[in-house]
Amino acid sequence: MHVQPGSAVWVRSVPSSVTGGAAPTGAPVCGADWLPAVVTSVDENGAAKAARTENGAVWKVSPRDVELRSDEHGVQDLIRLAHMNEPSVLDALSRRYASGEIYTRTGPGIVIALNPFRPVDGLYDAAAMEAHRSEGLSGDDGGPRAPHIFGVASHAYWRMRREGKGQALLVTGESGAGKTETSKLLMKYLAYLGGYKAAAAASRDGSDDDDAERASVEQRVLESNPLLEAFGNAKTVRNDNSSRFGKYIELHFCGGGSISGARIHTYLLERSRLVHPAKGERNYHIFYQLLAGATPHERERWRLGPDATSHRLTAASGCVELPGVDDGELFRTTRHAMRAVGISVSDQEQVFALLAALLHLSDLSFAPCPRDGDEGCALAGGGDASLAAAAGLLGVDAAALRKAVTTRTRATPDGPIVSPLQPKAAAETRDALSKVIYARLFDWLVTRINMAIGEDLRRTTTIGLLDIYGFESFEFNDLEQFCINLANEKLQQHFNHHVFKQQQAEYEREGIDWSYIDFVDNADVLELMEGRLGLLDLLDEACRFPSATPRDLADKLFAGAAPAASARFSRAKKSVSAFQIEHYAGPVVYQTDHMLDKNRDFVISEHQALLAAARLPLTRALFPDDTPGPATLRPAGSGGGARSGGGVGGFKGSAGNLKGFQFVSVGSQFKRQLADLSAKLSQLQPHYVRCIKPNPRNAPFELDSHYTLEQLKCGGVMEAVRISNAGYPLRRTFGEFLDAYSALAPGLRAKRISRRRMTQGAAAGGPALAAAANEDRADLLALLRGLGDAAGEGVALSEGRDWQIGKSMVFLRAGAAAALARLHVRAQAAAAVRLQAGWRGAAARREAEARRAAAVRLQALARGAAARREARRRREARAAAVLQAALRGAAARRGLRATVRAATVLQAALRGRAARALASQMERSEALIKQHEEWRARAPRCAAAMMRAVGGTSALPRQPPRAAAAAAPQDGSDGGAAPAVSDGGKPKARPRYRAAARIQAAWRLARPAHASYKQEHHLAATVIQQHWRNRGRLRSEARAAALRGALVEYAARHDSAARIQAAWRGHKDRAVTRKLLAAKRRDEFRRNAAMFQTMAAAAGAAKPPMPSPLQAAYAILAVSGAKGEGGAGEVVKGDAAGGGLARAGSELLEARGIGQLRDSGKVTSLLGIWQHRLSHQRARQEQAKKREQLVWQRQQQLLKQAAIKGPTEEVEVEFEEPPSPVPVGPPMLF
Question: Of 360, 355, 313, 311, which Cα lies nearest the Cα of 445?
Fold first, then answer.
């Protein structure tokens, strides 16, 4: 391959060596083996030596590791790729799949379908069906529409209508690729094109009971799908709904394009699945549907177990359920489909009875005969019940069924010989009976569907839909894989011829001179597998010998002439009984272990005789007796149609007619059916849908390149690409080619643009478009002929050899396309250099101009910013001065106001306390004055009473105090009654001393507290003054908090001082009060004594001697006391009374003693006064207490207001409870 530096290529991801970096990771790749790169160096032959990947790593490559890469993205048709190779195909598919486009064309009539593994919105709805309805109507081969399976069906339909020739839609792919769903969608769309839309609308008006009578042909064809899926599909390890048979549906169309009939052909039903399903797989869906959907009455009638685990047939593989699948609902769908295709209720009951019989047959197990010496086998535990249930459902005798599965009858010239079977042979006989019953039941269903649909013998054209298994290669491959791969080889040969014919037809249509295109033909493989004395003939020959073993078969195959002469056949390396065939998709190893048993397809004579005589009508219909009789319904295949598992086979005639034996094998039947299918397809125009499974994990929109590439090879897509490359792989219309390579001719693009503008809106086929096409052709010829030897390096582009021009397209061979690509790369490089030079010059000029303009702008911006900053600074300075002045003034005013408020509060508190103290003192003084006035007013009355008591007049003359004192006795006779006096005549000072001592003790106790208070008060005042002096500098919250704390402390100390002062002043006031009261009592006592002395001196001459004043006073007190003690006293008037009183007083004084009388009289005379004063004093204390409480509350309020309105922030201060007033005791007595 000739390349040059700068060419876009693909390189393998594991080259010989890497330079310039490690292996790239995370680069966009088309597959796991290819990376996009650009050639960096080439050798002397033009082959790539090194390439640089997109991440910058440089790879040393060899020519075989390099493929040309095109830059086209979103290509809908792989034929349109400039370089059709494996990495380009994978890259195109992966890009479309990642964007949600699951369909891609590979030329006309071939569509690749990648399974998305999830529903795609709007892909198959009514709008999509209508959008593709007219596709292919005008005979175009795709046009601008996106590829779709509806487009393939529409092309086939309109081509059938236009040409009157039959069409075929071939859907192939491996299990899980989506063949079944694609076939259903194609059938649905063909029914839509054929008029099913109106028929379906008409069928909605009736009831469901007469579905079979009113259902249209289209509806019956569609309803047959769920029925065939239930009986022919199963879960495999790759697919949950895998078709285990091939299906070819012929849709018959009348002259008007409507579906008039149909016929279904089936191929190679996988009968071995019925008795030997693989682990992790399931048996056919119908068994699980029957066990899940049967009613209790039906379950009892058919003797079914509770679920799928109750029978060996459904539980042997270990998988009984599918996620997200309701088998009971699907059973109802299957019944509806049976009604739709015309199967009556009684026939349905018989079908389900046969299925239940197969379930019970699978439960039969065998053990050696328990009796010694007996040969054969017996039913194991529980087998009798299963045998009876199976026999009853089949309509045969239980003993006859037991004999049929445990013995074998051999025909000899002397007569039949019955031989017992060993347990293993009996199990094989049981399985053979089950397989033949199910195979014939499946053929019967296909026949009934064909009868219900109806074959139109007067049909005009047909469209065939083939849904067949894809190429299979497993770890263990048996006869099924051999037949499947034979069918795929046959279809691949048909596909290769079709692609070659497409190429030939396109060349002829365009008027291109072409020669034979060489392609790989697989005729030798087909000759090896199905030719005369090929593998199938040798297998049939080995099956004719009952004692043949797998090793015998392998030896026969290896010794055969045809296999030995074929290069496609070889021995397997790991097994002596296996062989290998080199298919078009790759080598496959086949094992011969079970080929002999699976290829034999005859019914055991005992089974045929037993089932032909069954009581159940359906059983007799499946196994008709060979003796002449009334016509009975035979399975599909016996009447000439295709069938799934082989013919009836066995002995012809009665069981005793041994000469009529005819051997029929599965391989020979399939070979004949495949030949019929090939003959039909050769008469039809094929359209291919290659279904691809993008990954083995069934993950949505995830493409595994290796996995996909293998399927592309198996599906023949890569062979189609190779065939296209063998001719003229690069095909472009004139306009597309000129648009793609206009860089090779100066001025060509301008001409194309002007022609497009001129032809815009012109009618198709008009003169304007024809003239534009002629001009495009002339420009194209001038371009290609002008290139000549311009490709350089010894490569010349010559007309006819390297390129040709057709009627509407230009065709180039692979080498010419590569040379043209190199020229295009050079032209693009030169144009890029010119563009880069112009662009870089313009960019440099723009950059210089931009830099100059940016510099000017930056300078202007910088100067403006500097001027604005200076102006802003000056404005801010002026504003700051104004703000500072205002703030300082406001702060000073706030501080002054707070100081004034605090001083006012403190002054008010102090003045209030002083006023309250003064008021309290004045109240006490007023009380004393009132008491003095009361005593003064009471003294004359007392004197008058005393005079009356002693008999004197009521009005005594006043005597001077000196005379009264002189009149008093001097002998001291009344000393006992008088108060205690000192030697000098003065009262003793002991009470006064005690009072003074108490006052001094109280003062000494209060003085330290007062001194401490003064010291703390001075300290608090000093702190407040310091904060006040520094108030201008207090800006922080901490100093403000400190000031508030000092104020609170000052308030607390002031409160403590106020308490101390109150206590001290109260104590001092009480002391003063006691002194005043004592002085008042002494003065009053002296006045009373003087008054009594005067009265006694005045009455001493004429009357009996008067008692001394003290005696008289105490006598009065004694009389008062005597009255209180004795009740009512005597009242004596006149002198006698006075004398008696004096005597009584004298006697009393003498009896009690002067001191006792003095103390008793003193207490008695002062008791009333004391009680009266005490009550008044308590009332005053209560009033003072209330006043102090009110003053304290007001003081606290003022302090709070001062703290709130001060220069600092608001501070919450907790004040103690108001101090309780200092209790004031009773007045002291001296």
Answer: 355
Can 470 be counted among the known catalytic residues?
yes
**Cβ atoms of 588 and 489 closer than 8 Å:** no
How far is it, in rounded angstroms, from Cα 714 to Cα 492?
A: 9
3-state secondary structure of 22: coil
Is 680 marked within a binding site?
A: no
Percent of all residues in the chain with a pLDDT value above 70, rounded to a whole number: 73
Separation of alpha carbons 569 and 525, rounded Å? 9
173 among the known binding-site residues? yes
| pLDDT digits 0-9 by tens, 453-477 | 888 888 888 999 998 887 888 888 9
Rounded mean pLDDT of 596-606? 81
Q: Is 175 part of the annotated catalytic residue set?
A: yes
| Per-residue pLDDT band at 336 (split at 50, 70, 90) | very high
User: What burial class does residue 98 get, using C-beta atoms within 10 Å of its C-beta: 0-12 exposed, 13-18 middle, 19+ buried?
Assistant: exposed
Per the CB < 8 A criterion, the answer to whether 610 and 554 are in contact is no
pLDDT in tens, 858-916: 999 999 999 999 999 999 999 999 999 999 999 999 999 999 988 888 888 888 888 88
695 part of the active site: no
Is residue 574 classed exposed, middle or buried when 0-12, 13-18 and 19+ CB atoms within 10 A define those classes?
A: exposed
- Among 115, 172, 242, 260, the active-site one is 242
DSSP state of 657: -
CA separation for the pair 1144, 1130 (Å, rounded): 11
pTM above 0.70, yes or no: no
Mark whether 549 is an active-site residue.
Answer: no
Q: Are 392 and 360 in contact (CB under 8 A)?
A: no
Q: How many CB atoms lie under 10 A from the CB of residue 341?
A: 22
Q: Which pair of structure tokens corresponds to residue 793?
A: 């390096």
Alpha-carbon distance of 92 to 116, in angstroms, equals 16
For domain 1-15+29-69, give the fold: SH3 type barrels. (2.30.30)
